[in-house]
Design a protein that fits this description.
This protein has 3 helices and no strands. It is 58% helix and 0% strand.
């Protein structure tokens, strides 16, 4: 999902779309649907992975040599 992300100009609309896609993928991987009534905050904690925005920030800093 972050292929070539080091040179993207990030807008708020991109951030929102990436958050939605991230949540959908995490629910799919866990085998949950929105009908299961599991809070959105609980799904990433269950998977123990960094958020897409944290990974994007890391990729950009790495590309800049920091």
């Amino acid at each position: 999902m972050l292929n070539g992300a080091e040179s993207w100009p990030i807008k708020n609309s991109h951030v929102q779309k990436m958050n939605v896609v991230e949540m959908r993928m995490q629910r799919w991987i866990c085998g949950h649907t929105r009908r299961d009534e599991i809070k959105s905050e609980d799904v990433p904690d269950k998977m123990e992975v960094a958020s897409v925005m944290d990974q994007l920030r890391e990729v950009k800093l790495k590309w800049l040599g920091m």
